[in-house]
Amino acid sequence: MNELMELLSNDFLPKLLAGMVVNFEIAAIALVIGLALGLLLAAGRLSGGVATAVTVSIISLMRAAPTFVVMFFLLNAIPRDATLFGSPFALSGVMTVALSLVPYSAAYVADAGVDGIRHLRAGTTHGAFLFFPNVTRAFFVMVMSSSAGAAIGVTEGITVILRQAEQLPSFDDRLVLFALGIVLFGIPLQAGFMLMSLFQRRFGRSTVEEEASA
Amino acid sequence: MLSVILSAAKDLMAAAMRSFAALRTTGVVLCVLIAAVAPARAETPDAALAELLKQARAKVPAACTQPTVDRLIKILCAKKIRVGIRDYYPLFATRAGDKREGYEVDVALAIGRMLGVDVDFVRVNAATRIPLLAEDRIDLAIATMGHNTQRDGQARFIRPHYYRSETTVVGPRELPVASMLDLPGRTVCVTVGNGSNAELVSQGARLMLFDEAGVLPDRLKDQTCTLAAQDDSFFAKYFTDEDFNARYFQKFGFAQVPWGMAVARQGSAELARALDLISQVFHRDGLFIDIGRLHSIRLGFLRQQQEVWRTPECNTDAGTANPRCVLPPLNTALPPTSFAPDVTSFEQWVEDTTGVDLTLPMLKTAPAWSLFKDGVFYSLVLIAGALAATLAFALVLGWAMGSRTFLLRWPARLLTMALQSSPIVLTLVIAATIANGLFALSTETVLGAAIAALGLTNGANAGQAVGEAMWSLRAEGTQGGLFGRALSRASTQIVAFLVNAAKGTPIASFIGAPELLSSLTDITSFSSGRITTYSMLLIFYTAVVMVVVWLCGRLRLVLEQRQAAA
């Protein structure tokens, strides 16, 4: 335990917080790309005919693709000297993890987007606003999933914890360190979920009232 | 009587003559045998080299215009030898402008002096050193080239070898790693295609792959890698840096590879013979050691070789053909599968038909095939286990969270909250740490830990939905069969988290579960075809998850029908 305290008195906490910022950064990139792609897919799904069939298949495939495998696929399938429109296109570790989360985020946004558009068409604007808490939920799920970056050497929060754990000889100290990690990841996550619940409760109630009056 | 005496005398004479002839024959046979058995007076390598060069020089300039003449004659005609050398391999061959230096540079210059010719350096790298020999653009390659059975068919290696490297595992000084036995479960950073990767994999190490060795020291410094494995000659330069040396240590070495100079297989017989003899003399006289000391490379192998080449048995013109004196090439050939030729034919057919460069390394060699089969099997076990565990934890935690008893409800809620707050990678590591603390490290332990972690994470979320469904049913005043109805009501959430558990199984490779992702990463570390391999992996897991989605859809239908019936 003393060793753990010595460790914490050094630069562990700043490093961990910097690592957690990377988790949020990865999730933000994945969400932005997922929003663009997902809304296009949602529009395609509601357009009818062949476009609906095609987009439904794409969304199903995206939903089924495991993030961790997509990450290793991107890491290994894109050549280091690849170019895009004549410019070098080598993915950084952060971008690799972010892009591996895009299938999930795009599929999620497409599903939530379809619900939102249906609410808008039905004239229940508050129901359509539920799109935002749903997307926020996806964002926090991706913050947690971005810890997969530890497997390819991205210095995010979990990587920092695991590196420190390797320096600790005591089993108990390691468990305490892991518990600390859970608390630090849990605070923003639970706060986010709480905020989302408040939002959902408020708009959920409004939606019921809106639908009742419609 | 006289006739009898004469007859006896004749017989005696004849007998004596026969005895003499027999003796003479015996003597000749003995002499021949002795001559055959007695050791011939061996010629020294110096004398053999001098004679070889004398004969070659005698052909100059008459043979200079002959196209099929041996490269040794061509070198003597041109008065220069073209040596393929690397531009940047610290301590061995580096270039700053026109200035080259390093162990291999000085060895090449010493060879030039022995042959009495100038040295023309030609830049080569790992990919070009053998093709340039075959294309007659260089006469000799001295380019950090390990001598293995695979390369033996592509170039004529000079023996004795001029250096020997080994794969060294480097890590922080304080890290308790001393041998292969300490590697199971640890991640080691390596370069793709390194011949020693297969051995690391067989010892239970997890590999993190990089394309270039040059990034490994930086990845050690930024702590991306805890351990890195690479040729000791590569790390030699870094250990001359005080800061690096103070922080890192060569934990242990393995997979020793002799380095060979090489000439083309065709038209270089006399050149190769001359270089064999030169290398032999350099070892015996300690010239390799002197040059090595000048460039601060490790001298252990060179000292050992000097001892060998000073022995009377090896210090002869036939020493380089004596298996007790020279080292064999490293055997890197992996045994092929019985169907490897069919796989190669199939790959060729696909390329001819579609133009797609398909490579299926997992089907071609026995170790890769074995890893692949195990990977598929353990992946399916992991998925089945994760689904069962998710369902079990969902039922138990759901029942506890839906309970009216405070002592059951709150521990379940706290556990769920903790699991929701822990990224899955961390949960897996915690499960593996606890499992390894309780049981001996094994495949079963790791799989068990992964199944428990995936089941707990997804089961807690599904259980929360079941608990909430129980409370909502109570609020509606439902009486009897509450738990069954709650399961039906939470069916969508249960199914969602079952699918999530199946999707999450590949992440178990992070703690060393030997599933398909782990297996294919190991296979690609010692073979080619990364793009095909990872494409197949993506297709496999996506297909499996889609099957799970379909099965879970059926389950949800059953649960919803039950709810409707109720």
Could you please describe the fold and organization of this structure?
The complex is a heterodimer of chains A (214) and B (566). Chain A has nine helices and two strands. With 214 residues, chain A is mainly α. Chain A has a single domain, classed as MetI-like fold (Orthogonal Bundle). Chain B has three domains: 179 residues, D-Maltodextrin-Binding Protein, domain 2 (3-Layer(aba) Sandwich); 91 residues, Periplasmic binding protein-like II (D-Maltodextrin-Binding Protein, domain 2), CATH 3.40.190; 204 residues, MetI-like (MetI-like fold, Orthogonal Bundle), CATH 1.10.3720. In chain B, 57% of the residues lie in helices and 11% in strands. In chain B, the strands form four sheets. Chain B has a five-stranded mixed β-sheet with strand order 10-9-11-8-12. Chain B has a three-stranded parallel β-sheet with strand order 5-1-6. In chain B, strands 2-3-4 form a three-stranded antiparallel β-sheet. Chain B starts with a helix and ends with a helix. Chains A and B meet through helix 3, helix 4, helix 8 and helix 9 of A and helix 16, helix 17, helix 21 and helix 22 of B.
In short:
Chain A contains 9 helices and 2 strands. Chain A has 214 residues and is mostly helical.
CATH class category of the largest domain in chain B: Mainly Alpha
What amount of the residues of chain B lies in strands?
Answer: 5-15%
Contiguous helical run count of chain B? 22
Helix share bin of chain B: 55-70%
The average pLDDT of chain B is 86
CATH class of chain A: Mainly Alpha
The name CATH uses for the topology of the largest domain in chain B is: MetI-like fold
Q: Summarize the amount of helix of chain A as a percent range.
A: over 70%
Give the SSE string of chain A. HHHHEEHHHHH
Largest sheet of chain B: 5 strands, mixed
* Global morphology of chain A: flat
Radius of gyration of chain A: 21 Å
Strand order of the largest sheet of chain B: 10-9-11-8-12
Cα end-to-end separation of chain A: 62 Å
Number of helices of chain A: 9
Mean pLDDT across all residues of chain A, rounded?
84
Terminal Cα span of chain B? 144 Å
Structural class of chain A: mainly alpha
Report the strand count of chain B.
13
